[in-house]
């Protein structure tokens, strides 16, 4: 990883964002992505890995394709607000998602640190997402004489991939058939952890939870596009830091937060002192998503989020 941070891959994927309390520094994400590409490149050059080996490793292939895509294209990074994250956790994702519109083809969602934990107690602090329309073909990856190609998609798909804090990787591709989500197999690389959990049901629960957060984030941006403000560059003086103490300045991007205007809904129930019933404990009244009829003749359908309510919070 130290070599990866000094490689050209790190320069390609890194973005100079201010660190945000409660989230991983983006440089950590960049180092993980660069480490994946640096390791793949080194393995191919030395013969420890072949193109055929990678093709048979779904998670490894998809994470590498994600890193390659980010290294060669501009991409957005969104930080998911902590309160909005909690509200998504307390909401049910619809089984059918019609008209899911994504404003960008791919990007990264930064998650509150250490909130989503896999069965091996490894935290997922960010996730890459990508919309794959019918006919889409992944970019050709070239490492020296090695060329890695893929076939075009026959229908619309959605993909997510991530590298966990301790190096494990996950990836999944979902088929968007009409308004239905058809889940294909997901795959895992445990990062060489000997005692890695092999319970697929627990791994599936982790995968479902992560996927639910990603899809709800995209749905939220569809109904609340105003709750996203473009990042701005802020010049930070580095005078007196390091040798020379010159007047050099470095530009830092302000994190782009999804849900800056979000307000959690709470409700406090009144307690009758003459009642024999105890005051209800703090709990979530679960939220959900639904499509509502709108427009002339009520022919148009739009998504609406019925927010969860924290009762007695």
Short description:
The chain is α+β, with helices and mostly antiparallel strands and 313 residues long. It is 26% helix and 28% strand.
Describe the secondary-structure layout.
Blueprint (H helix, E strand, L loop, with lengths): L1 H4 L2 H6 L12 H21 L4 H5 L2 H14 L5 E4 L1 H8 L1 E2 L13 E5 L5 E2 L5 E2 L1 E7 L8 E3 L2 E3 L8 E7 L5 E9 L2 E4 L3 E3 L10 H24 L9 E5 L11 E5 L2 E3 L6 E3 L15 E3 L1 E8 L5 E7 L2 E3 L2
Parallel strand pairs: 1-3, 1-15, 2-18, 16-20
Antiparallel strand pairs: 3-6, 4-5, 6-9, 7-8, 9-10, 10-11, 10-12, 13-14, 17-20, 18-19
Helix pairs in contact: 3-5
Pfam family, one: AcrVA2-like
Q: In words, what does this structure look like?
A:
This protein is α+β, with helices and mostly antiparallel strands and 313 residues long. It has two domains: 2-223, no CATH class; 265-311, no CATH class. It is built from seven helices and 20 strands. It has helices at 2-5, 8-13, 26-46, 51-55, 58-71, 82-89, 200-223; strands at residues 77-80, 91-92, 106-110, 116-117, 123-124, 126-132, 141-143, 146-148, 157-163, 169-177, 180-183, 187-189, 233-237, 249-253, 256-258, 265-267, 283-285, 287-294, 300-306, 309-311. The strands form six sheets. Strands 1, 3, 6, 9, 10, 11, 12 and 15 form an eight-stranded mixed β-sheet that branches. α3 (26-46) packs across α5. The longest helix is centred in the C-terminal third of the chain and has 24 residues, at 200-223. The chain is globular. The model is unreliable at 236-249 (pLDDT under 50).
């Amino acid at each position: 990883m130290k070599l990866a941070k000094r490689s050209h891959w790190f320069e390609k994927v890194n973005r100079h964002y201010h660190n945000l309390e409660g989230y991983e520094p983006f440089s950590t994400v960049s180092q993980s992505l660069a480490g994946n590409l640096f390791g793949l490149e080194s393995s191919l050059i030395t013969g420890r890995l072949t193109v055929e080996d990678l093709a048979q490793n779904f998670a490894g292939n998809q994470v590498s394709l994600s890193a390659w895509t980010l290294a060669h294209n501009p991409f957005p990074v969104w930080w998911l607000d902590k309160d909005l994250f909690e509200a998504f956790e307390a909401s049910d994702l619809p089984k059918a998602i019609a008209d899911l519109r994504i404003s960008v083809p791919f990007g990264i969602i930064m998650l509150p640190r250490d909130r989503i934990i896999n069965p091996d107690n490894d935290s997922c602090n960010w996730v890459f997402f990508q919309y794959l329309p019918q006919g889409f073909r992944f970019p050709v990856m070239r490492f020296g004489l090695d060329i890695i190609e893929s076939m075009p998609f026959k229908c619309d798909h959605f993909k997510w991939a991530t590298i966990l804090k301790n190096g494990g990787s996950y990836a999944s591709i979902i088929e968007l058939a009409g308004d239905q989500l058809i889940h294909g197999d997901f795959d895992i690389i445990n990062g060489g952890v000997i005692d890695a959990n092999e319970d697929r049901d627990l791994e599936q629960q982790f995968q479902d939870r992560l996927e639910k957060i990603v899809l709800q984030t995209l749905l939220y941006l569809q109904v609340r596009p105003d709750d996203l403000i473009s990042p701005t560059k802020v010049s930070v003086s580095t005078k007196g830091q390091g040798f020379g103490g010159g007047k050099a300045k470095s530009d830092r991007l302000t994190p782009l937060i999804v849900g800056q205007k979000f307000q959690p809904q709470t409700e406090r129930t009144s307690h009758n002192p003459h009642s024999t019933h105890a005051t209800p404990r703090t709990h979530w009244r679960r939220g959900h998503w639904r499509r509502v009829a709108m427009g002339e003749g009520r022919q148009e359908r739009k998504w609406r989020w019925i927010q969860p309510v924290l009762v007695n919070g």
